[in-house]
Amino acid sequence: MRFGFVIGLFVLAAFEAANVYFIMPMPGSQRMRSLELAYLLYSWRWLVRGLAVGLMVVTLPFAWRGGWFRRTGVVVGIAAVGALAFMFNFVMAADAMFKMPARLTMATPAANKVALDRLVVGLELNGEARAYPLQFIGYHHQVRDSVGGRAVLVTYCTVCRTGRIYDPVIAGSHERFRLVGMDHFNAMLEDLTTGSWWRQANGAAVVGPQKGVAMVELASRQVTLKQWFAMYPKSLVMQPDPAFTEQYAKDYAFERGTSRGRLTGTDPRSWHDKSWVIGLRIGRTARAYDWNQLLREGTINDTLGGRPVLIAVAADSASFYAFTRPNAGIRYRIDGDSLRAGTAAFGLNGKGAATTLAPIVASQEFWHSWRTFNPGTTRFGAP
């Protein structure tokens, strides 16, 4: 019986460590196919904890006998496991490290305090436009808002470099989420109704009662705030929450790709895990385009899923746009912030592009992210 207490301590410590290991960026954890195991451990956490603690309580009188040395060991063991449990559940928990805004403040261009050269993820719905700087949503991971009278869930994962905006209405109800961890380096959200886990990169529930359900993605665009205001002069833009001033990125290292950090840093080469790509999906056909090639050439004309497409980068070398072309015979080139095809020319971010070309959803992300969550993707220019 005296060893029962030690077994209970060991089981509790090992379980708390495993509960965190599989859903946080620990060595080797994000390259395993362990999502179902992680969800199983999480779902049964209170039962396992109860059994381990129950075993410790029952065997505590036997472990306590034998003098001061054994009693000291009991106290130290309980304190150590308690500290581990607190660390894993309250300090290292994803939603404890990355909190949602305490309040969401939106400002007009005249009142805006965000630098115009910062990148934003923006969308327009029902005549209303709003923009969310990567500087802020990169920390928060998720922001709830309403645009054009419609609920939206703005999400961002810096480890994948993925910005997505979803309609959070599921089965007729406005769902709320918390950040629970990550899988294959992508942020994982847990809905508060069923406890299902949803992948940020595609808005799909991957484990839990809602498995197989996917949120509707809303068309968004990643550009500099200056470019966004050129398209939507009356747009509102998210402002910093004073409660998180220290957490927000002060420099441009992540946005401009000069960071070399293990998780969120950029590899300046092409087609490496942390290289940037532009991802397009039309129907069931997905393709990745090398960001370095786009910077060199300014535009990429292609045909994807039977539709002529165009990707263009603005003169700021940061804002990018994706459109479908009227037909495969018309090829566009970039000239500053203007698109040209033969003698025709119009602004990349103005009404000319919007009326001549149909915008399509495109994402700038790390190559490891695009290929992981778009199996079967091809690479532009590759055999």
Short description:
The protein is of the alpha+beta class and 383 residues long. The protein has 11 helices and 26 strands.
Please give the structural blueprint:
Layout lengths: L1 H20 L13 H9 L1 H20 L3 H24 L2 H4 L8 E2 L11 E7 L2 E6 H7 L1 E6 L2 E8 L4 E6 L1 E2 L2 E2 L2 E7 L2 E6 L5 E3 L5 E3 L8 E3 L2 E4 H7 L4 E3 L14 H4 L19 E7 L2 E6 H7 L1 E6 L2 E7 L6 E5 L8 E3 L2 E4 L2 E4 L3 H6 L1 E2 L2 E5 H7 L4 E2 L4
Parallel strand pairs: 3-15, 17-26
Antiparallel strand pairs: 1-15, 2-3, 2-14, 4-5, 5-6, 6-13, 7-8, 9-10, 10-11, 11-12, 16-17, 16-25, 18-19, 19-20, 20-24, 21-22, 22-23
Helix pairs in contact: 1-3, 1-4
What does this structure look like?
- It is a single chain.
- This protein has three domains: 91 residues; 148 residues, no CATH class; 113 residues.
- It is built from eleven helices and 26 strands.
- By secondary structure, it is α+β, with helices and mostly antiparallel strands.
- Helix 1 runs antiparallel to helix 3 and helix 1 runs parallel beside helix 4.
Q: What are the salient characteristics of this protein?
A:
383 residues; alpha+beta; 5-stranded mixed β-sheet; 4-stranded antiparallel β-sheet
Write down the domain tally.
3
Name the poorly predicted regions.
none
Based on Cα principal axes, name the global outline. elongated
| Share of β-strand residues | 25-35%
Number of helices: 11
Structural class: alpha+beta
Distance between the termini: 66 Å
CA gyration radius, whole angstroms: 25 Å
Order of strands, main sheet, comes to: 1-15-3-2-14
Helix content: 25-40%
Number of strands: 26
The largest pleated sheet is described as:
5 strands, mixed
Mean pLDDT: 94
